[in-house]
Each structure stands twice: as structure tokens, then as C-alpha cells.
Amino acid sequence: MAMDEIIHKFFNPAGIAIIGSFRPGFFGGYLAVKTLMDGGFKGKIFPVNPSYKEVLGCNVYPSLMEIDEKIDLALIMIGRKNVPAIIQQCAGKNIKAVVIVSDGFGERDEEGKNLQKEIDDIATAAGIRIIGPNTSGTASSSDDFNPCPYTSGYSRLNKGGVSICAQTGMINPQAYPYADLGYGISKICDLGNKCDVDECDMIEYRGQDPHTSVI
């Protein structure tokens, strides 16, 4: 699969697996599912957690391996020690794009650095691209894709040609009132720790994106 084809899946997945907690609150899988639904996302949503049966009308799967349908993107929000095993499952399911929201990796301590290297090694061997870890994720107005895992107060981005990329969650919908701006947004990406995908990948991809006028 070509690099730009994989990067595209971070913003336009036909199916997204969300691995995390689905308890209502200010952060987590419940909010990611709700924001996608409220924002008009037309793709398929696959919540994953063995402790839940249902969330917001969606069936919750005990593991990625129980999902029979194609998954383009995995969004991971679990304890750091369990992330490598999930990356292995992504490899087994041929999921090529992964966003790791979970923190506590290279930005925290030596154990975190080792875990980050482990997930990077697994991903590289399987041809998986990773945004993160320690990221707020991605969003795309052209595809009504906004899996924001935090409370933001709105679900839809005004469509436009401005794409934003930075190494901070302060550019994501929960931290900035994009719905109130006079100009529209095309795509948003918080790079997090950049264990894989970085600014160069994003500039190259967005330079070819027909929905982006300014980066």
C-alpha cells in the first residue's frame, strides 16, 4: 500500500475500531463514538472492549480479532503496557493506520521509551503507520470525521481549505473553537510523540490533498 494511501486512512477511514473505555465522562471511547455519530460520520464504527456489550447503540466487540469486517483505522486509548499487544492484533487484522492516544511513553520515563520502541518495531515489521503515541488524534471536515476523545462542545467542523498540524493537542477540537471561526478547516492532526508519522509526512500528503489550500 502506498504511503499516501495509508496516511489518507487517518482522515477518511471507511471503518474505525475504537479501543478503550466506553463509560460516559470527559474523555475516552464513549466520547469518540458519540462525536463521530453526532458529526455525521458515514463510515462504520467498531468499539472494542471485553467489559462492554453495547455503547450508543453499537455492538462492542471483545477484541479486534472478533471483527469480521474491514478496518482502516484503529484508535487506541488504553493503558500503555497493553498497547503492544493491540498493535500485534492490528497487524493480524491488516490494519495499516493506527492512532495511539494513550500516553506514558517516550515523554515520561525509560519504561515508556522502551514501550514506544517496541510498538514502533512491531508496526514497522507489519507495515503499519502510527500517529502518536500521546496524541489527541486527527479530524477531517470533508469526510465529517471527528473522533475527538475529549469533551469539545461541538461535533462538526466548518468545511474549508485550512489544514493544521502540530505536536500538541491544543490544536484539536476540544481545545479550540473551530465551529466559531469565520474560515473553514480541512484537516487537523496532533502528531504526539512522532514515533512514526511526522511533519514531513503530513506536508507531503496535504500538498496533494484537493481539500487543502493552506497548511
Helix content: 10-25%
The span between the termini is 25 Å
CATH topology: Rossmann fold
The overall pLDDT, averaged over residues, is 95
> Strand pairing plus helix content: what structural class?
alpha/beta
Q: Could you state the order of secondary-structure elements as H and E?
A: HEHEEEEHEHEEEEH
* CATH class term: Alpha Beta
Number of structural units classed as domains: 1
Number of helices: 5
> How do the strands of the widest beta sheet line up side by side?
2-1-5-6-7
| Oligomeric nature of the chains | single chain
Low-pLDDT runs: none
Give the overall silhouette.
Answer: globular
Strand residue percentage: 15-25%
How many beta-strand elements? 10
Would you mind describing this structure in some detail?
This protein is α/β, with parallel strands linked by helices. The chain has a single domain (about 5-205), classed as NAD(P)-binding Rossmann-like Domain (Rossmann fold, 3-Layer(aba) Sandwich). It has helices spanning about 5-10, 30-40, 85-90, 110-125, 200-205; strands spanning about 15-20, 45-50, 55, 60, 75, 95-100, 130, 140, 160-165, 185-190. A 5-stranded parallel beta sheet has the order 2-1-5-6-7, sandwiched between helices. A 3-stranded mixed beta sheet has the order 8-10-9, covered by helices on one side. A two-stranded antiparallel ribbon has the order 3-4. Helix 3 (about 85-90) packs parallel to helix 4. The longest helix is centred in the middle third of the chain and has 17 residues, at about 110-125. The chain is globular, with a radius of gyration of 16 Å.
